[in-house]
Amino acid sequence: MPDLKQLYDAVVSGDAKTAQLITKEALAAGIDPLKLVNEHMVPAMDEVGRRFEANEYFVPELLISARAMKGALELIRPLLIARGDKPVGRVAIGTVKGDLHDIGKNLVASLLEGGGFEVLDLGVNVSPEKFIEAVNAKQADIVAMSALLTTTMPAMKTTIDALTQAGVRGKVKVLIGGAPITQKYADEIGADGYSENAVGAVALAKKAVGVA
Amino acid sequence: MTRRERVLAHLAGQPVDRLPLMPITMMFAGSLIGARYRDYCTDYRVLVEGQIRTAEAFGFDYVNTMSDPAREAADCGAAVEYFDHQPVALVEGQSLLADKARLLSLKVPDPRGGGRMHNALKALELYQQRVGKEMIIEGWVEGPIAEAADLRGINTLMMDFYDDPAFVRDLFAFVIEMELRFAREQIKAGADIIGVGDAAASLVGPGIYNEFVWPYEKQLVDGIHALGGRVRLHICGNTRQILEGMSRLGCDIIDLDSLAPLTEARQKMGPDPVLLGNLNPVTILRNGNPDDVTRAIAECHRQAGPRFIVGAGCEVPRDTPHENLRALCAYAHSHRP
Ligand code: B12
């Protein structure tokens, strides 16, 4: 029986090898895969987020922890699918048109995967049309937009308006984030939610699809 | 005293008639002359015209050659994308060093080889002819972590610090060799000051900064000094956690972004280094009114003390109201250090 505290530690310290090793052992020992995620990996990423806020961790540490979590998830996901577990929701995420910053967006995408979502990463410089296509063709439940530039923030509104025009605004929840974004701005443009960090983004997404 | 004499005297610790004024403009300068930003990045005549006209219109003490972070990487053969109204950008999905082994065969490009670096050198030569006696001419190179991020992909480089420290050191060494060659040519072409932009340094903590980044930034700063140039270090973003290291680099000007408090910088750096900045470019300079700007820059001056140069925390945004920028400039024009 593996020591699952080691899984938590491996994610917190960004040790992808150990995270995968312990996950393999745990799965072989018959431990519920969902329990690994919810009781060990998610709390580990919460701790990573806390250390980031406290200036103990910086971007490199965030990225290696997210990678360790994703590595373990790759082993777990096929099992969940095989036993018929559905993803909690499907998120189309991207950095808005004109904006090429993606570090924060990538972190949010990783944590959403950790939270049980299926994530369609549309990349950077994503046009409203691409978001709409993801909603129509891929049945996304959530559209998540990131913007780091004051000059590209308005593209969030343009995208929301385009979703409305395309007649799909009612089908999806829209979440936004990025350093210059505020709750006030989210309210102004009619987004359904805003969070200032990636851990908060997962809670928000769960609330949006009614699982939290 | 000429603008050039003013800045040089201030850096040398001699008395000056008023505060020097050196805000970073790029897209703002392009817009001022009605140019497409694409042309500002790719045609040195457009850049020079934009800079000189902006400096004249607002009474800046200097002109610069910076337009986007991709000059050196483009000459190395990295995939870059050009936009009509945005800075040239690296295509991260096709980064030049996606395969680390390519570093072994990568050659330092000739700065005079007809590429984007050459274009910057031509800008410097034209500045030298047009305003060389009068204004400070500032060149630009990318710092070790910024340029390494351009060549390797910023998301990947961040993890390389943990995965392959030896590769990171080799990559930084390559970058320093290239940037010093570029700096040498810039100084020959007439640059008085070399700006060093090391944006990605604000993403790492003091551990990685001190262990990996600082030693190469130091080599670069010392190298530029040995070539007879002066150094303006600019790191975008929050640098609070690395201020102490930055202070030990021996830069002539430390240009701080709005997220790094000047009081804290002054405390950590002692009374001597010249600090530049650090008015919030968006919330105050672009979105505020002239009174907000005057109040904020007076506060910056108070925090920084006499060893101070007026500027914003980062690039003056393209759509900044002219009266706001004018208020910033008026402060410099009417105050002694
Ligand atoms: C790295 C960086 C770059 C890199 C980007 C590389 C990349 N692949 O991402 C490069 C060099 C390419 C770059 C270019 C530019 N940049 Co830049 N950049 C930065 C920098 C230093 C860090 C950004 C970052 O990654 N932060 C770390 C991540 C983890 O934080 P984050 O993105 O905020 O994400 C967190 C939260 O916001 C949230 N979140 C993010 N997205 C979402 C989405 C949802 C749905 C939710 C719920 C939450 C959420 O969760 C994340 C994790 O906690 C910042 C300064 C700074 N320190 O903030 C400037 C900064 C963002 N850049 C700036 C500028 C001006 C530019 C340029 C225009 C500069 C130029 N002239 O070249 C270009 C624009 C290029 C373009 N068209 O996009 C300005 C923006 C000013 C403004 N407010 O408009 C900044 C603030 C610097 C400054 N002080 O001027 N930049």
Describe this structure in words.
The complex is a heterodimer of chains A (212) and B (337). In chain A, α1 runs antiparallel to α2 and α2 (16-28) runs parallel beside α4 (59-82). By secondary structure, chain A is an alpha/beta fold. In chain A, 57% of the residues lie in helices and 11% in strands. The radius of gyration of chain A is 17 Å and the shape is globular. Chain A has 2 domains: 5-82, Methyltransferase, Methionine Synthase (B12-binding Domains), Chain A, domain 1 (Orthogonal Bundle), CATH 1.10.1240.10; 90-208, Cobalamin-binding domain (Rossmann fold, 3-Layer(aba) Sandwich). Chain A has 9 helices and 5 strands. Helix content of chain B is 51%, strand content 12%. In chain B, the strands form 2 sheets. Chain B has a 7-stranded parallel β-sheet with strand order 1-4-5-6-7-8-9. The mean pLDDT of chain B is 97. Chains A and B meet through α4 of A and α9 of B. Cobalamin sits between chains A (59, 98-105, 107-108, 144-146, 148-151, 175-180, 195-198, 201, 204) and B (26, 68-69, 86-87, 89, 92, 154, 199-200, 202-203, 236-238, 257, 281-282, 313-315).
